[in-house]
Automatic annotation (TrEMBL):
GO function term, MF aspect, one: RNA helicase activity
Organism ancestry: Eukaryota, Viridiplantae, Chlorophyta, core chlorophytes, Trebouxiophyceae
UniProt-recorded name of the protein: RNA helicase
Family: Belongs to the DEAD box helicase family. DEAH subfamily.
Span of the signal peptide: none
Naturally occurring in which organism (per UniProt): Apatococcus lobatus
Amino acid sequence: MSNNQPAKRRRLSDESVPRLREAELRKIQDLPVWEARKAVLEGICSNQVYVIVGETGSGKTTQIPKFLHQSRFGKSKIICTQPRRVAAIANATRVAKEMGCKLGGLVGYAVRFDDTSTHETKIRYVTDGLLLREAVADPLLQQYKVIIVDEAHERTLDTDALLGLLKRMQRLRKDEFHIVLMSATLDAGKYASFFPGAEIGLVQGRQHKVDVMYTKQAQESYLDAALTTVLQIHSKEAAGDILAFLTGQEEIDALCNLVKTRGAQTKGAHGQEKLQAVAIYAALPAEQQAQVFHPAPPGSRKVIFATNIAETALTIPGVRYVVDTGVVKQRSYQTGAGVDLLAVVPISKAQARQRSGRAGREAPGKTFRLYTEAEFEKLESSTTPEILRVNLAAAVLQLKALGISDIRAFDFVDQPPLPALVRALEHLHVLGALDTTGELSPCGQQMARLPVDPQYAKILLVAAASGCTEDAAAVVAMASVEQVFVNGRTEQQKQAATQAKQRFRRPQGDHLTALAVLRAFLATGKGKRGEWCVQNCISGRAMQRCHRIFQQLCTLLQAMKLPLERLGDTQDPEPLQRALVCGLFLHAACRQSDGTFKVIGTGQEVSIHPSSVLSGSKPECIVFNELVFTRRNYARTVCNIQMSWLIELVPTYFTKHIPR
Ligand code: ADP
Ligand code: MG
């Protein structure tokens, strides 16, 4: 611990958290990391790589970047990565408030399609994917003195790629810089030993006792069980908010709505009459995420319906009860299939423990696991890192763009299986991103500049060559938001929703329908768009986000000197359909005699998702954005195509995988 100069000491004690109410200030200084502040700073200063392990809620994410800023790194840029955009935004917002500055001042965030940071910004919260992209222009991340990789235990693909890159940087960068890894779980030994000379520091958490309850029998529907349990807690248990883990936007919105109606009829225990439901999930716009942190109004109890974002990445104050459905929506690569499948799967024991822990942050709490103890015992002990279970094409493209030509020799914390790497290289080759020697082609370089998955980047580039870039940008933007059409609650609303969808329906499928929706939205006067959304049973929030992404994609495409052309309304949509084929060929499927479809490259059987405008119709051949599993494999966001296009447009792939 050689860095204890008096100058540093003085600065540390001089500065305190500015402009917060006394009580709040005291609460912050009460966080476990404050006790460990000196040790944490010393650990970081005296080691190039320092791993900080501490219970969720102990103050790592919000306090440590601030400590660093208030130490001798005051003039340097500090970057802190998060696996999720919601966490980057929420934490930056919180820290800006604690430090009494505006977002984009001293503290800022940058996530895909949304960058608030400015030249003034010294503490920057970003997604790990965004930092990877920044590394293309600045491979050694020279502008940062301290790089904090937060939530390292999550082991997302981007985090793992970043860790590999940082290790390379450690070898190549000669100036003084520090790498800090933060994790909520104890198995940090693995990434610590990945970096030569890394030290581990432990922040002692304060966890209250949490009673864990299991169901006696397995539950048929975790959604029904979750709703019943939430209402029971509200009517029987002492004061305290409820955090319920669900798997995605659709479920969360549905339960929020049900609580609004049913919760009003359920009388709360202990004078807490009202039950207020709030939501938090990835696709929620930044402005609405903030709501989840507001305390419930006096006399009411809050229930937060969240995805696993609230497991470790965000700590929401006030929670005393956790409802754990035991499931999570996860992307995984089916062995041998080469196609990612999005499915609701059981969580791991480690995740179940993290979820329980959320109930005991401020006082003793209770966790209601909506599964039996025997089911718990059968769970995997920890979650498999993403790098071992997803399509690697996006990560490989980024690494190639960073000048790492031999991906197989790249040092990862966990080496991805060779067949998965080979498949990613093949995928990129067919997309035209790699030339025959495996180097990035000019097309690949352009693809790497576009902040979307390689298949979408390809769609944009092909569209640019065929006069429909703007339409493709609309389709890609629409693919980035979870759900545009709102499902009605009552029969009448459901009918209205179906009719609205019918108005925009295009026979070519969901992509062109989405394009029609966005065009109609943009054709509506700015002040009338909200009303237009309501009338058409369309989510205004989703449209706003989509619109923002669309604008940013257009700006970027223009900056890349690609012509921003669009199909005329009466014109044939074929160029756009063809562009979709060029990007989505792994997701091409043909109809079989029984009416289901077979994915050509893999032989998987799929059906068209009920939410698709093509559900119920009988196209011969389709491409789709996503494969999801609920009871069976479903193709989501589907476009009708001609089978002959496959060989014509993607011969390298379809001469190997012959349709039919
Ligand atoms: P860690 O990273 O160790 O999990 P955080 O730094 O995220 O911890 O959170 C520290 C504490 O700050 C939490 O216990 C929580 O109570 C509080 N906190 C974090 N974000 C917010 C917010 N947006 N609003 C209010 N309190 C917050
Ligand atoms: Mg954190």
